[in-house]
């Protein structure tokens, strides 16, 4: 490895000759360690040809010096500066100092993060470190970038802070080689945003953002020779925030999935993790039908050798993947479909392809277990997939070729199909993740995290490595533009004197790839050539770009080319470039997948123009058109309009536009060694990556430029506290800032004044911040001093006033001490004398008062006792008098009620008109029996007609089988048609059973009504001879009938509500079935196209046969074959029309049911319990009318259908007889319809009369009950009666309950039958069973 060129600039690490003194440390190049430390043992003098050095192992070394170039070794930094957090803080900034500082921090301090200006350098430790816990996140939250140790959380916090402060979108660009730790760094950055910017709502969006990582790692990461968890695709995740900077959603964009890894893996590499996870979990019960075993048994997962990774449990990772799917809202059915598709890809790779005729043709056995599993898991036709895996179709204007493919072509087609299926599944999962992370809240700003593949170079580099390195060239250019070009352009725009620094610009390399007639353009052009090859494309590259400085031709190869990238020189093999750029998948195989019975599989391969909603089919009738047997002209191979390279270039340009519109933050990941050993540092690999990622160029620009800059208004507002009052009075802020800086910073080279900004060297802004903080500190101290002085003065004044008060009282005490002693003795004597006199007077008054109180209290108690005796006697007299009056009034009322109850006239009034009603209902039952017989006859006729039609179809089927013996698929379609007709017949039988059930229910209901009407007639016909003995029984039966009718009304209302709910469910089920029928119709149409193509192939075989390589069917033969299928197609078309008519009838019936449900719901809500019987009769009348209309319409339709059939078959006498019979039935049905209308009018009038009589009867019963309840308070004081009147012998009233038979009081006494017979019947008529009547 050649050492980089040195320089004599002090800030770049070179030294002036007089600095080469004794004992000074220097760095010298070394082929093993890149740079080696040494010490000067002899002073350097100008003109010396060498330096005398002593190495670290005490060996002497003579370092030669180029006198012409005057290049001296780099100086070492002092030991106190070794291990700095920021590389720009070193005294000598050069490559060996940076490398040594990173090595010391990584190996000695175990610090993996180091700042380099605006770039965070992260070294992969290949070991889990405890520096990513929750408390670490909270520790970095709210801190400035330089306040704490370097960390990925510090960069994330800086991006979050700048987004909130500047209101500008941010981006974190994580770059580095494969295995450097880019994916882990991006994951920790997203974890920081999810913790700090947690969602304010309960959507748990931050958990969903983190849950997307295990899913994308499972389907997009794989083991390579450099990394056990290498991302084989690029992703850019935008985390959206609202105005309060809470996470509201996220969006993910992916770039260039490495599809070739699905079918091929190099040595010591694996396929994508999800394949091994699914194989490790194949023993679970839900995965038994997938037909999976261990990963070693499948070709697509065993090419790399070892299928396991040390320290990784695939089964445990699979559980995490399933949990992440569930957290993101992916249904269990969709998850199972995803796993079925992945298992199908594994089975596809194990197909046994058998070669024929020296490999010119091949086939797949129909008994192949893996083919059967593949077709069953994806729900596709076994025979079609077996055929089109080994054949392809070529369509021209005049001919259609079905050509057998060679063994190599079949293997390529199989691999292309597997890659295409996995790519479509990958895109579907990404779309569903974006749907789960999408939000309807308006996004205020976002932070993007770019995790894209790093620079790659292998022994064999193909199209994937070319695209990956092209993307890294674009990212490196963006980094150069942000760090170098924009820096220098800013200085030139502001007019700052600046010496331009030469740095590496990779624009010529990018132009070589993407410019006009570049590598990508020539590749697309060669793909358009019908017989283009990889060798022709490579030759075009040699002819076009041989003179380019970034393009080379290998000496020993004519199919390879070399590109000099920014990081390294890479040799690409052109073999496979065209095929991977075309990404060709045969249309016949895709059409089979489109017709899959699994909805998700069919949706994966639907084109955008075919993705029409199924509901659009409802608007019109599907058109059935007769198609020619010769298919229309279509391209034989399905090719994308844009090649993979063109799509990748467009997506990369869109990514660059997004990154340029945001504020970038860079994280450069370094891979310390290729052996993946923890904390092992390889200087060669590290310095190679440092040179490639631009870290050293950042150091150069940071050391030589002005990294800090302020606009004049911002600087004035920030540091105005450092200015004088006299300067603040000026209006020119620029002059004020110049005056301040000239006073504070004496060295004019430390700052520069631009047109709109002030530029500072490194460390000057920190110096100004220190001065500002000192100024604020001094002002704070002054304020604190003043406040503390005021507080101390106030405290002193309070203490002084308290001291003076204490002194005053103390002096008074001392002055009065002698006088107070004499006064106290005199007061004690006076106190004792006065106390004795007052005690004697108090005792005299107390004795007199007690005597007076005793006599007065005795007098008051005697008066109260005499008054209580008088009131007790008066109460007894009143009780007996009121009881006698109440008993007399009750006897009179009871006699009146008995007389009125013996007459049965009120019962006859209630039942007027019911006899006519019974007659009408009996007639209605007879008519319904007749209708039932007619319907049975019609059903039998329809059944016979249907059976005859089935027999005709069977005969036609037998004839067609004789003519076309090999056509098994059409026989299958006819059998399915017969099954559908049989199901329709069963459905007709089911409708008949439903009608019979409804008829039997109505007949039972009429029988109950007849009994309820006939019972009063029996009572009235018996005369009045037995009224006295059977009065109680008759009353009880009438009450029970009333209660039963009310209960039946309740039950009918409840049944009606349940029927409405059931009809709603049936309506929803019918709608869902209709949706499924529409979808099945689309899939059947696709299958019909496939069958038609296969029929054309079968028809071509007996008529015209050539060799398998050039089979063709001419247009003339296609026309001849089309005539043979026309009759069969017309019959099928007729049957489709009949099915469409039946569907219309069902839809009309559903609409009528919906209208009836809505009407019944409206009536149920408006009607009360009292009008339940009337509503029931009204509903029955409407139902009869609707049934009459329906029968009339059906008879008209049958009449038309039979008339049409009679026109076609005039010679049939049976049809004529059936037609005459239906006409007679139609006439009789019309006559019965008229009679039924008259009966409905009569029934309506009788119902209205019965309702009026019922209302009058209820009013009378209510008046009687109110009269009886009016007597209850008068019975309160009757002694020794039942609890209903007085409540027992003790006279306490209690509540009672209506029961069958006699009542029982609360004390267990049996009530008198004579006293309680009539009130019990009245209560039973008014109160429901089990209710309580309170006194």
From TrEMBL:
Cited PROSITE patterns: IQ, MYOSIN_MOTOR, SH3_LIKE
InterPro entries registered for this protein in UniProt: IQ_motif_EF-hand-BS (IPR000048), Kinesin_motor_dom_sf (IPR036961), Myo5a/b_dom (IPR058662), Myosin_head_motor_dom-like (IPR001609), MYSc_Myo5 (IPR036103), P-loop_NTPase (IPR027417), SH3_Myosin (IPR004009)
Annotated GO MF terms: actin filament binding; ATP binding; calmodulin binding; microfilament motor activity
Entry GO terms, CC: cytoplasm; membrane; myosin complex
Coiled-coil positions: 887-998, 1050-1101, 1129-1246
Actin-binding: region residues: 652-674
Highest taxon in the source lineage: Eukaryota
Myosin N-terminal SH3-like domain ranges (all copies): 21-73
Amino acids binding ATP: 176-183
Region: Disordered, residue numbers: 1101-1120
Gene Ontology BP terms: actin filament organization
Protein keywords: Actin-binding, ATP-binding, Calmodulin-binding, Coiled coil, Motor protein, Myosin, Nucleotide-binding, Repeat
Keyword ATP-binding: yes
Domain Myosin motor positions: 82-773
Similarity field: Belongs to the TRAFAC class myosin-kinesin ATPase superfamily. Myosin family.
Protein name: Unconventional myosin-Vb-like
Organism in which the protein naturally occurs: Cyanistes caeruleus (Eurasian blue tit)
Lineage, top ranks: Eukaryota, Metazoa, Chordata, Craniata, Vertebrata
């Amino acid at each position: 490895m050649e050492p980089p060129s040195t320089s004599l600039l002090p800030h770049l690490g070179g030294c002036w000759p007089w600095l080469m003194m004794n004992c000074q440390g220097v760095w010298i190049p070394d082929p093993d360690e890149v740079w080696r430390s040494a010490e000067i043992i002899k002073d350097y003098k100008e003109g010396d040809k060498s330096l005398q050095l002593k190495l670290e192992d005490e060996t002497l070394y003579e370092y030669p010096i180029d006198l012409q170039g005057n290049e001296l070794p780099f100086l070492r930094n002092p030991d106190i500066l070794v291990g700095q957090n920021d590389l720009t803080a070193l005294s000598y900034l050069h490559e060996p100092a940076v490398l040594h500082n990173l090595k010391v921090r990584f190996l000695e301090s175990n610090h993996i993060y180091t700042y380099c200006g605006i770039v965070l350098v992260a070294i992969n430790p290949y070991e889990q470190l405890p520096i990513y816990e929750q408390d670490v996140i909270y520790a970095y939250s709210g801190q400035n970038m330089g306040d704490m140790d370097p960390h990925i959380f510090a960069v994330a916090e800086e991006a979050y802070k700048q987004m909130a402060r500047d209101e500008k979108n941010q981006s974190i660009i994580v770059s580095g080689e494969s295995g450097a730790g880019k994916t882990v760094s991006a994951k920790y950055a997203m974890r920081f945003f999810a913790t700090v910017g947690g969602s304010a709502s309960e959507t748990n969006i931050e958990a969903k953002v983190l849950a997307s990582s295990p899913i994308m790692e499972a389907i997009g990461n794989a083991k390579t020779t450099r990394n056990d968890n290498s991302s084989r695709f690029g992703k850019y995740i935008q985390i959206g925030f609202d105005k309060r900077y809470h996470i509201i959603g996220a969006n993910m964009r992916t770039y260039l999935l490495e599809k070739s890894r699905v079918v091929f893996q190099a040595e010591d590499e694996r396929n994508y993790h999800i394949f091994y996870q699914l194989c490790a979990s194949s023993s679970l019960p839900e995965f038994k039908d997938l037909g999976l075993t261990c990963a070693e048994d499948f070709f697509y997962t065993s090419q790399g050798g070892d299928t396991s990774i040390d320290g990784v449990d695939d089964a445990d990772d699979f559980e995490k993947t399933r949990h992440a799917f569930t957290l993101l809202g992916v249904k269990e059915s969709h998850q199972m479909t995803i796993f079925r598709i992945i298992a199908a890809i594994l089975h596809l790779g194990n197909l046994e392809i058998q070669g024929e005729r020296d490999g010119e043709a091949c086939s797949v056995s129909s008994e192949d277990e893996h083919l059967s599993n593949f077709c069953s898991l994806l729900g596709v036709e076994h025979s079609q997939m077996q055929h089109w895996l080994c054949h392809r179709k070529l369509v021209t204007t005049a001919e259609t070729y079905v050509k057998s493919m060679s063994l190599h072509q079949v293997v390529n087609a199989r691999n292309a199909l597997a890659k295409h299926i996995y790519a479509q599944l990958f895109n579907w999962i990404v779309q569903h993740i974006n749907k789960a992370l999408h939000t309807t809240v308006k996004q205020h700003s976002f932070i993007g995290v770019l995790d894209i593949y790093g620079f790659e170079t292998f022994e064999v580099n193909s199209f994937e490595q070319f695209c990956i390195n092209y993307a890294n060239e674009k990212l490196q250019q963006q980094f150069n533009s942000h760090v170098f070009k924009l820096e220098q352009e800013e200085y030139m725009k502001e007019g700052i004197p600046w010496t331009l620094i030469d740095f590496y610009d990779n624009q010529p390399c990018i132009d070589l790839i993407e410019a006009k007639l570049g590598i990508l353009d020539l590749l697309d052009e060669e793909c358009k050539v019908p017989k283009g090859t990889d060798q022709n494309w490579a030759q075009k590259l040699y002819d076009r770009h041989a003179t380019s400085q970034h393009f080379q031709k290998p000496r020993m190869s004519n199919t390879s080319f070399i590109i000099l990238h920014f990081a390294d020189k890479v040799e690409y093999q052109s073999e496979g470039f065209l095929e991977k750029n075309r990404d060709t998948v045969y249309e016949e195989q895709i059409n089979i997948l489109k017709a899959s019975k699994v909805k998700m599989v069919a949706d994966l391969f639907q084109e955008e123009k075919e993705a029409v909603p199924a509901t659009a089919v409802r608007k019109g009738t599907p058109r059935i058109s007769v198609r020619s047997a010769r298919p229309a002209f279509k391209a034989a191979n399905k090719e994308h309009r844009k090649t993979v390279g063109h799509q990748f270039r467009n997506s990369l340009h869109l990514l660059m536009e997004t990154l340029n519109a945001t504020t970038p933050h860079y994280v450069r990941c370094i891979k310390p060694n290729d052996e993946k050993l923890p904390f092992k540092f390889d200087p060669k690999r590290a310095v190679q990556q440092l040179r490639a990622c631009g870290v050293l160029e950042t150091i150069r620009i940071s050391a030589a430029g002005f990294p800090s800059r302020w606009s004049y208004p911002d600087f004035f507002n920030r540091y105005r506290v450092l200015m004088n009052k006299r300067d603040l009075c000026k209006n020119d802020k620029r002059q004020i800032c110049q005056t301040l800086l000239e006073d504070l910073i004496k060295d004019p080279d430390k700052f520069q004044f631009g047109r709109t900004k002030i530029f500072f060297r490194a460390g000057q802004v920190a110096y100004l911040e220190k001065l500002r903080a000192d100024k604020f500190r001094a002002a704070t101290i002054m304020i604190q001093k003043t406040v503390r002085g005021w507080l101390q003065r106030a405290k002193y004044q309070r203490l002084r006033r308290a001291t003076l008060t204490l002194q005053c009282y103390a002096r008074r005490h001392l002055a009065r001490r002698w006088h107070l002693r004499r006064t106290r003795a005199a007061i004690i004597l006076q106190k004792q004398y006065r106390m004795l006199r007052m005690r004697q007077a108090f005792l005299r008054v107390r004795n007199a008062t007690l005597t007076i109180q005793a006599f007065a209290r005795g007098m008051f108690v005697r008066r109260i006792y005499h008054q209580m005796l008088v009131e007790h006697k008066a109460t007894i007299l009143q009780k007996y008098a009121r009881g006698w009056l109440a008993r007399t009034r009750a006897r009179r009322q009871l006699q009146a009620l008995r007389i009125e109850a013996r007459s049965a006239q009120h019962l006859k009034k209630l039942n007027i008109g019911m006899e006519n009603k019974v007659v009408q209902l009996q007639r209605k039952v007879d008519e319904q029996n007749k209708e039932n017989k007619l319907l049975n006859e019609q059903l039998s006729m329809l059944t016979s007609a249907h059976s005859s039609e089935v027999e005709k179809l069977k005969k036609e089927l037998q004839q067609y089988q004789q003519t076309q013996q090999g056509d098994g698929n059409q026989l299958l379609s006819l059998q399915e048609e017969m099954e559908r007709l049989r199901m329709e017949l069963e459905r007709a039988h089911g409708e008949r059973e439903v009608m019979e059930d409804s008829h039997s229910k109505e007949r039972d209901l009429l029988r109950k009504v007849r009994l309820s009407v006939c019972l009063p007639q029996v009572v009235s016909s018996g005369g009045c001879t037995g009224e006295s003995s059977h009065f109680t029984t008759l009353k009880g039966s009438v009450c029970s009938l009333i209660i039963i009718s009310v209960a039946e009304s309740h039950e009918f209302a409840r049944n009606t509500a349940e029927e409405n709910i059931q009809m709603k469910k049936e309506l929803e089920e019918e709608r869902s079935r209709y949706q499924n029928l529409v979808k099945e119709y689309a899939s059947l149409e696709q299958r019909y196209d496939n069958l038609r193509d296969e029929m054309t192939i079968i028809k071509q075989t007996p008529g015209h046969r050539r060799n398998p390589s050039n089979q063709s069917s001419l247009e003339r033969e296609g026309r001849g074959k089309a005539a043979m299928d026309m009759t069969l197609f017309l019959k099928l078309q007729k049957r489709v029309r009949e099915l469409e008519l039946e569907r219309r009838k069902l839809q009309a019936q559903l609409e009528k049911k919906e209208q009836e449900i809505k009407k019944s719901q409206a009536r149920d809500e408006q009607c009360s319990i009292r009008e339940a019987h009337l509503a029931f009769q009204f509903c029955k009348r409407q139902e009869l009318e609707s049934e009459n209309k329906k029968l009339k319409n059906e008879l008209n339709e049958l009449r038309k259908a039979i008339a049409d059939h009679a026109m076609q078959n005039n010679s049939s006498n049976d049809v004529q007889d059936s037609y005459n019979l239906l006409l007679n039935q139609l006439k009789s049905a019309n006559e019965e319809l008229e009679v039924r209308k008259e009966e409905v009018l009569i029934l309506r009038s009788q119902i209205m009369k019965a309702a009026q009589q019922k209302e009058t009867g209820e009013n009378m019963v209510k008046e009687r009950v109110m009269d009886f309840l009016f007597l209850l308070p008068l019975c309160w004081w009757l002694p020794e009666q039942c609890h209903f009147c007085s409540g027992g012998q003790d006279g306490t009233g209690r509540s009672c309950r209506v029961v069958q038979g006699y009542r029982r009081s609360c004390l267990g006494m049996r009530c008198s039958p004579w006293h309680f017979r009539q009130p019990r019947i009245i209560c039973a008529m008014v109160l429901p069973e089990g209710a309580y009547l309170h006194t």
